[in-house]
Amino acid sequence: MRPQVRFQLAQWVPPKLQGRKLELIYAGEVDGRSLTNLYTATRGAGPTITLVEVLSTGEVLGMFASHSWQVSSAVRGDGTCFVCRFGDGNVDDSVVYKWQPSFGSSDDESNESNGSTEQFMIATPIMMDMGSGALRLNEDMTIAFSGPSATFNNKVLVREKEGSSKEESFDVAGVEVYRFQSPW
After folding, report:
1. Domain tally for the chain?
2. Which residues of 45-71 are buried (b: 16+ CB within 10 A; e: fewer)?
3. Secondary structure of residue 149 in the 3-state scheme
4. What is the end-to-end Cα distance of the chain in Å, rounded?
5. Count of H helices and E strands in the chain?
6. Is the per-residue pLDDT at 6 higher than 50?
7. Whole-angstrom distance, CA of residue 42 vs CA of residue 33
8. Alpha-carbon distance 172 to 67, whole Å?
9. Could you tell me which residues come within 8 angstroms of residue 60 by beta carbon, excluding any fewer than 6 positions away?
10. What is the 3-state secondary structure (H, E, C) of 40-102?
């Protein structure tokens, strides 16, 4: 993990995790590129950071999961989840998108329903998703998708496709998952 990635993460994660060391618990190139292997490696890990490298540009995207990833029909996670993009050596190029709760009145049809703004972590055998499309990996983690999301009110995370208003796919160079070590 590059030093600027560690620096940014230290500022973005919840206060109770700041200052904790990160431990690599899954690397696609070592552990095999599959969601099954990732879910096995992260079982019981608690909060994690997943880093996704874009093949065409080398840029690094990330997602903070407040809970362990596990296959479920239910949405998991909470408002501390986020998605991000790390700059290439320049901290100013980094961006984080955190949960944007909807507080509109129930009469206001222009507001999304609470359900669509609370789609944090979704894990199935064929995809892993943060923010209902903000960042999604396919089952063999060779292709990922990023799109605008009501959960995080984000733009497309891949810089070269940032202006797009629809979900964009991209090839994945690698995936790593880190957990936060216990302070004890």
Report:
1. 1
2. bebbbbbbbbeeeebbbbbbbbbbbee
3. strand
4. 23
5. 4, 10
6. yes
7. 14
8. 24
9. 2, 5, 51, 52, 53, 54, 85, 86
10. HHHCCCCCEEEEEEECCCCCEEEEEECCCCCCCCCCECCCCCEEEEECCCCHHHCEEEECCCC
Domain with 176, as residue range(s), is 3-180
Comparing C-alpha atoms, which of 180, 178, 129 is closest to residue 20? 180
Secondary structure of residue 146 in the 3-state scheme: strand
Instruction: Answer yes or no: pTM beyond 0.90.
Output: no
The structure tokens listed for 92 are 């100013």
Handedness of CA 161, 93, 19, 17 (dihedral sign): negative
- Any idea which residue has 């957990």 for tokens? 179
Supply 82's token pair. 């986020």
Q: Which amino acid, one-letter code, is at 31?
A: D
Amino acid present at 146: S
Structure tokens at 28: 């696609």
Quick: pLDDT tens for 44-91. 999 999 999 999 888 999 999 999 999 998 899 999 999 999 976 665
